[in-house]
Fold this sequence. Notes:
The complex is a heterodimer of chains A (80) and B (409).
Chain A: E1 2-10, H1 19-26, E2 30-38, E3 43-51, H2 53-65, E4 69-72
Antiparallel strand pairs in A: 1-3, 1-4, 2-3
Chain B: E1 4-9, E2 15-16, E3 31-35, H1 37-43, H2 46-50, E4 79-81, H3 83-89, E5 94-98, H4 108-121, E6 126-130, H5 134-146, E7 149-155, H6 160-167, E8 172-176, H7 180-193, E9 197-198, H8 204-211, H9 213-221, E10 229-233, H10 238-252, E11 262-268, H11 273-279, H12 305-314, E12 318-322, H13 324-338, H14 344-358, E13 368-372, H15 396-403
Parallel strand pairs in B: 5-13, 6-7, 6-9, 7-8, 10-11, 10-13, 11-12
Antiparallel strand pairs in B: 1-2, 1-3, 4-5
Helix pairs in contact in B: 3-13, 4-5, 4-8, 5-6, 9-10, 10-12, 11-12, 13-14
Amino acid sequence: MVIRQVMLTFPTEQIKEPVIYNLGRQFRVVTNIRRADVSADKGWMMLEIEGEENEIEESIMWLTSRGVRIDPVDGDIVEG
Amino acid sequence: MSFAQSLRCRKCGREYRLEPVNLCEFCLSPVDVTYDYKSMSAEVSREKIASGPRSMWRYRDMLPIDGEVVDIGTGWTPLTLAENLGHELGLEQLYVKNDCLNPSYSFKDRAVSAAVTKAREFGFSTLACASTGNLAASVAAHAAKAKMQSYVFIPAGLEASKVVGAAIYQPTLIAVEGTYDDVNRLCHQLTAKHKWGFININLRPYYAEGSKTLGYEVAEQLGWRAPDCVVVPGASGLLFTRIWKGLNELSMLGLIEPVNTHMYIAQAAGSSPIVNAFNSRSLHVHPVKPDTLAKSIAIGNPADGYYALKTARESGGGAWAATDAEIVEGIKLLAQTEGIFAEAAGGTVIATLKKMVAAGVITKEQLTVVFMTGAGLKTQEAVMEVVNPIVIDPTEESFDAALGQHVCP
């Protein structure tokens, strides 16, 4: 079991969807919302995802396929 | 011993010991080195600094360093009065801080020198970083000097010309197939698994501190005063916040008058999350997908974006963007007026400065410093259009025929 911390950025069309609930239903992962700010048209969330590596990978791919952007919580590591 | 005391979360204020960590466990915000400024102020003086080495290490008392430094000759780069460019733009006191003239040709040497020194203190024998250019070269160079191993991750497909500057120091160079996001994720996973000093992950608080010497140096070179305005290229936003921190520390230590500098951050329009947030009055910097020729500042999810935004607002400054075409014109304008060839990040600074002066945001009497953070030879492809020689035969006739009436007497 590993824990991955990621920042999610939600597009407008996902704001009304229960994305984190669905994530927990579809994959064997434990989610822990650490920080978040969601408004009427956009939102972001610092999320901890705990589970087997492959489950985490698949859950992140699923989020991406929903149009949710995934970033590291501490910003981009690849610098100029 | 240094005057550094602890690491403190920049958001919630929780304190940590001086260890290789970069994030607060609770709010996942970056941590920052704190100092005993009272004791520091008893130790530092203008005279003591002025008698120190002509390098960034003249400010050693203000850095979180205890051991022998890993120095390849970084810092004390020229601050040039840019009369020609100032005249062109309508500024009476314009200065260029030419940090292209560091040993690996970018400002990153300041940050990396501090981070690698700290890495050695922590007992790391291996360094790592992920970069498309400047950072890679600097880490590899410092690793060579410190006789440490280094792993430099680059995205696969990067042009050879961009990695030569790092490869020459013989790091373990790893080209990762995949997107930049994949490289980001892999580096986090490897840092968790190996005992590496990863320059912009677990060593980031110390890396950040090295950058503030740019602020110190400019103030000292101006005769111990802060500028009225500065324009700084923005990628992760870290350098911008550290120049501000450096100036304010000097003031706190009584070395300069209270700081009233307007801080302006310059981004490429194709990668301007901080500018977007500033203009929309947002408190959150929403990530973007970078699309610009200014690769050295193409960061879509800036680690210090929020703090850069805060600095721009607190200082009464701002955030401006320039298009790729404007950036190229900016590179050329600086080169053709001041003889300084900066990379695209520098072109971004000049292009946004031009806009700010035109808009009356920066006025002619304000003492303004623009920061050139990397050398132009690293990004020659951005300005290949200037290569257009007049081809002639080796005869005077051919010369006269080609240039005709245009020859200077």
